[in-house]
Amino acid sequence: MKRLYVGCLLFEANTSSPLRTDLEAFQNTYLAEGEETRGLIGANVEVGGFYSAMDRHEGISVVPGFVTWGVPGGKVTDETFRALAHRLYAGIRVAGKLDGVYLSLHGAMVADGDDDCEGLLLQNVRALVGDAVRIVVSLDWHACMTRRMLMHADAFVGYRTYPHTDLADTGRRAAECMLRLLSHGRRVRKLFARVPLIVPVEHCSTDTDPSAAVVGMLSRLDGAAGVLTVVHSMTQPWLDVEGHGTSLLVCCDEDADLQDLAAKRDDVLRFIWESRHAYTVPVADFTGFMVGLASLAAPVCAVDLGDVITAGGPGDSTFLLRKLLENRVTTNALITIVDPGAVEVARAAAAGSVVDVELGSASRGYNAQTRVKARVLRVTDKPFTPKGPALSGFTVNAGWRALLEIGTIRLLVAQHTAFLHDPEAYRSMGCEPSRAALIIQKSHHLFKPAYRDIMNACEYVDTPGPTARDLALHGFQKVRRPIYPLDDLTDFVKSEEYEL
Ligand SMILES: [Zn+2]
What we know:
By secondary structure, the protein is of the alpha/beta class. Helices cover 27% and strands 23% of the residues. Helix 2 crosses helix 6 (167-183) and helix 3 (78-93) packs parallel to helix 4.
């Protein structure tokens, strides 16, 4: 009987956010240990996919371990990272004799004191279990793979969809990879390369080219002789770390043709490099967006690019709300905003009453406070479950939330950040998004699968905030230069390349 420990510590950092992420953010999203985590079977998350794949295999005994993740946000405090990592280490220590460890990580977790949390985590897990135990890791498409990470695990798998809808499937592929590694004792070789390219995310969906073509190339590389896994990562753009860029990792058998596989890997990177202009297309500001809005069929989904929660934005920007009010827009609009103070005001009021609320935090440079009169339509603290493909079956807890009416605007105010990309965020408040004309979204792509049958048009709006699209505004200090699009590079070059 082979014994496998399963753990997860998944978080995507945004180093431009003025906020810090603490333990509460993980508790609010998901934090559990042991048998309780089997409740994730059926939810579209990696650990759920890994459990269900392994449950079908006789001769495998899974030890459900420590599983937590947080909604993307600002850097994690050192205290929080230490506390979470130690729970994971403690779980591995008491698990007894192990043959393998599967870890579901993001790959772009940054703490105040460490830019490479996953590297440190894997180094410590390897030290705990020794070299004979197989370690397989799954990563997000926006991971920032580092040498330290790659040195201390046997193999990696990664998402193949953006919007990310293959989380459980990624867990299943991690399980297949683990079974292959357990069935033979051979060493895995890793062929890694990075190009100095930060890929803007608006036109990066795998539903369209060039990313659809990239996924096709990755699938062909999967099938090359000797290949175990292929992981592609376009690092999360708002991450001020040295090893930024777009990378490709090929994990292969030790007797594979390494030179040929490295050449095939570089073909994919060269294609991405040569497609860079297709990813960097202009986006309208609010004024330009409003000019175009009249000609679009409703409902229109519009992404508030400066405050994307799923890229680590605090979700608290009042920018578009203020613009709609200042311009006396009479469109039926839905907006979400994170504002615990406003939620408190709504909780204290009776349903149907009109309250004075101040939205937005004055302490954050990109934001401005705005005072509005709003009717309280509904207040609840009941979690909801996305029904669309992105994170389906996963319970979302946004704390207390209130639905407010400000003229033709309906404002969903949440106590803290959460995955609010699914229409259930509104439907759970008695509000049907398909009846709105304009729906402001705070995710780049994650909302699209569930809104596909609701929206008739989708637009991006260039707005200020920690996820603002102009990377030159973010004042990166650590990112290794030159890098496109911060620098004007023309020739295909690799900023890093090595074999392990
Ligand atoms: Zn991602």
